[in-house]
Design brief:
Largest sheet: none
Structural class: mainly alpha
Distance between the termini: 49 Å
CATH topology of the largest domain: AhpD-like
Number of helices: 10
Shape: globular
């Protein structure tokens, strides 16, 4: 049986590499990543305060600047040469203890222990990312949702804020719940009862927790000005934001 610490490191590696893989490769022979010229042109258009290496307003945090506890967290996160710094992880590493706690929460919410299937996880994540216009996270998770078996009709309903009539009740319940959380700042009795009937209190807590997790990641990305990886395009529609 694998040691618990080994399992933890493997989980971290999978999470990091999943996001990295999306932004460094394309599925299908007709799809190609951005050329060096496109990457250079994209970086030239970034705001002046954005670091050209990290893609946000701070340089990559350095291991040598951390205390021993911070170095331990750094070593758990980094898979290769700044590989673990993709996305909000790099920003969070400026506070290593916080990053370790956040990563542990993410591990739970994305595991079988949360009681949420990959399908439910990705629908919840997409709803949160869309409502806070989190380009970086949405662009990574749209394809992950497809791989989790989420129908494109459901993804488009979230992306383009379409009517949920005709969608499976479990998906529609999550979408409506998210809309009310983020837009109305209040969840109606009817919407709560519907979601609670489908998922029950425990899973519902974890669904809302997952939405909150990605809302927090979006706030970090927005605060620190993280750009899309150079040359990559957001999959969120520009109109109507």
């Amino acid at each position: 049986m694998l040691h618990r610490k080994t399992l933890w490191k493997l989980t971290v590696a999978v999470c990091v590499l999943t996001v990295l893989f999306f932004f460094t490769s394309k599925t299908g022979s007709a799809q190609q990543g951005p050329s060096d010229a496109e990457k250079t042109g994209a970086k030239a258009a970034w705001p002046k305060d954005v670091n050209r290496d990290s893609g946000y307003r701070l340089p990559y945090p350095k291991r040598e600047d951390m205390d021993e506890a911070g170095k331990k967290v750094y070593d758990e996160l980094i898979v290769g040469n700044n590989v673990g710094m993709v996305g909000p992880f790099g920003i969070q590493m400026y506070s290593p203890r916080y990053q370790a706690i956040v990563r542990q929460l993410n591990q739970f919410l994305r595991s079988e222990g949360s009681g949420l299937t990959p399908h439910v996880q990705e629908v919840s994540i997409l709803v949160a990312c869309r409502e806070v216009n989190a380009d970086f996270e949405w662009t990574a998770h749209e394809e992950l949702a497809q791989k989790a078996g989420v129908d494109q009709k459901i993804i488009d309903a979230i992306k383009y804020r379409r009517n949920t009539t005709g969608l499976p009740d479990g998906d529609a319940a999550i979408i409506q719940l998210g809309w009310e959380i983020y837009r109305q700042k209040k969840v109606s009795s009817e919407t709560f009862a519907r979601a609670n009937k489908v998922y029950g209190p425990s899973k519902l807590v974890n669904i809302v927790g997952l939405m909150g997790f990605y809302s927090t990641a979006a706030a970090e990305i927005q605060t620190f000005g993280m750009e899309m990886p150079a040359g990559e395009k957001s999959l969120l529609p520009a109109a109507g934001r």
